[in-house]
Design brief:
Elements: H1 13-16, H2 21-34, H3 41-54, E1 58-62, H4 65-75, E2 83-87, H5 92-100, E3 104-108, H6 119-124, E4 130-136, H7 145-155, E5 158-162, E6 170-171, E7 174-175, E8 182-186, E9 200-204, H8 207-216, H9 238-271, E10 275-276, E11 294-295, E12 309-313, H10 319-328, H11 358-366, E13 367-370, H12 378-392
Parallel strand pairs: 2-3, 2-4, 4-5, 5-8, 10-11
Antiparallel strand pairs: 1-9, 6-7, 8-9, 11-12, 12-13
Helix pairs in contact: 2-9, 3-9, 4-5, 4-8, 9-12
């Protein structure tokens, strides 16, 4: 197969970590020789380094981003009888974590351009018993976190930041994940700070909340050695922590690469008259001044970490046909998220008759994610843009 016809994936993990290969191998050997594999010095060191990077008072390593969400909610006292406002546009783990505590996820619409939680819709869904809101930072977008924090302050709610996709994003000069009571991160391999399996992190401003998470990740075991409540097994492994320390040290360089790659994509798409910037009038509405078939990712916040490169297709563009054409050219794409959480059978009990989410439904119908990863070349960007131009018949 020729170089130009070789499949171009949405994420190429092997290339993304190539610059760190030697340091990663050395870290793995160090752990193997230590004989310590669970909750040892590597986890402790990673927690300190991650908290310093984020500007968080406390950080607790856990087994996955999903467990980070669940344990964070538990440590904040969320449980049976409580309601939690959750974006309807996003990954299943967010609402799943709420339901696992015994609380009820209350789905909230998304702003139609950027996909952030629609706080006006959240206000309409407030009712007695609602105790928390989850702000999800999608695809590295840090924007909206400050507004969600202010909303929670005004309404007396606990704010949990689901920053699984946005390690390194910032809003209002602070790291996403540190603006609420607790923040949750994922180290799934395809994330901005990707590990080599599953892993997660909870950050908190309160020592009491952090200590509660530490207890819950070890079956509810307290510093006295007794088990005060039922927890779970959600520890971060020493090997993952050691490898993540290497990745964290390289993150500033990689964030800079991601920001530059996003600009290169923007410029290449606009140079071919394929794309235009969406308007942002406070409601993040979808609109294009030129009638271009593609709308670029919104850039409403300066602290974007560029975890994904997801564009919006104008009405009339056949997304399935476009994906098929790109696949035939060897260009892989993805859809995040084709179905709203309110449409998933697992959450049927939490959806009321007549519930409508027009902003999120529009996003689900028109969003397309293009190849985007550390190490991606200018030639590969041009290859994607050329395949889009051919499929959309734009010269």
């Amino acid at each position: 197969m020729s170089e130009t016809r070789r499949r171009l994936p949405v994420v190429d993990l092997a290339r993304s970590i190539a610059a760190d290969q030697g340091a990663l191998e050395a870290a793995a050997v160090r752990v193997l020789r230590s004989g310590r594999f669970v909750l040892g010095p590597e986890v402790e060191a990673f927690e300190h380094e991650a908290s310093a990077f984020l500007g968080a008072a406390h950080a607790v390593g856990v087994s996955s981003g999903t467990d980070a969400l669940y344990l964070a909610l538990r440590a904040c006292g969320i449980g049976p009888g409580d309601g939690v406002l959750v974006p309807v546009f996003g990954f299943v783990a967010t609402a799943e974590a709420v339901a696992r505590t015994g609380a009820s996820p209350i789905f909230v619409d998304a702003l139609p351009g950027c996909g952030r939680i629609d706080l006006a819709d959240a206000a309409r869904r407030l009712r007695p018993g609602v105790r928390a809101l989850v702000h999800v930072a999608l695809g590295g977008d840090g924007g909206g976190s400050v507004q969600s924090a202010q909303f929670c302050l005004e309404h007396g709610l606990t704010l949990l930041e689901d920053a699984a996709q946005s390690f390194g994003a910032r809003d209002g000069g602070r790291s996403v994940g540190t603006l609420g009571t607790v923040g949750a991160f994922s180290f799934f391999p395809a994330k901005i700070l990707g590990g080599f399996g599953d892993g997660g992190l909870v950050v908190a401003g309160s020592a009491r909340v952090a200590e509660h998470v530490r207890s819950l990740r070890q079956h509810g075991r307290t510093s006295s050695g007794r088990f005060a409540e039922l927890g779970t097994n959600a520890r971060l492994d020493e090997l993952q922590a050691a490898l993540l320390r290497v990745r964290l040290a390289s993150l500033p360089r990689e964030l800079a690469f991601r920001a530059d790659l996003a600009v290169r994509y923007d410029e290449a798409l606009m140079a071919r008259s394929l794309a235009d910037r969406p308007s942002c009038n406070g409601a993040c509405a979808i609109a294009s001044s030129t009638g271009a078939p593609i709308l670029l990712p919104p850039r409403c916040a300066s602290g974007h970490a560029h975890g994904l490169y997801s564009v919006r297709l104008r009405a009339g563009v056949d997304r399935a046909a476009l994906r098929a054409s790109l696949a035939a050219a060897g260009v892989e794409t993805a859809i995040y998220y084709a179905h709203l959480l309110s449409e998933e059978p697992a959450f049927a009990a939490f959806v009321a008759d007549g519930d409508r989410f027009p902003g999120a439904q529009g996003l689900a119908a028109c969003t397309l994610t293009l190849p985007f990863f550390v190490g991606m070349s200018d030639d590969e960007v041009e290859r994607v843009v050329g395949a889009l131009a051919a499929a959309l018949r734009v010269r």
